[in-house]
Structures are given as C-alpha cells and as structure tokens.
Amino acid sequence: MKSLVMRRRRTIKERSSVKMQDDITKDNLELIRKLNEHSGVEYGWYYNCAIYGKCKATEMRVRFDLYDGISEVIRKHIKDVNNKNKNSR
Fold first, then answer.
1. pTM
2. What is the pLDDT averaged over residues 58-66?
C-alpha cells in the first residue's frame, strides 16, 4: 500500500494540501553519501525503503544494504554481469 501511495504522491499533492515524504534513517543517508563519494558508483539514491547506486562500469542499478562493503558489492556485480554476458553468447 505504501509504495502505491508514494508512487502517486505527486498527483495527491497536486489535488490537495497534503504533503508526503519518505523517512530515511541517518544510516541510510550516510550510505548514500558514501555511494556518491565512491569511485565505482555514479550516484546513489533511496527508493521504496532500499538504497541503490548506479555502477559506473555497467551503468546498471545495484542494490546496497547498510553493512555491505561498497567495493565488494560493485566487484561482485561486475563479475555477475560479465558471467551472464559470457553465458548468453
């Protein structure tokens, strides 16, 4: 239900005086800051209770958890993409 409401918040906001926003924890905000500073990530963002970053090498979205090592997640993502591309040939 929450994701449906948050997806339509612009329409709801235009039709009423209701303001809506998603709460983000300090820890998640810190993770986004670290993603934005990491050389392997183009930028990070928060969406639907999860943190994502755009991998520079693959230009794909990657999901991050609070206690993941950013470099390790990027390395694994690139390896998985390369393996998938090899298998599809």
1. 0.73
2. 96
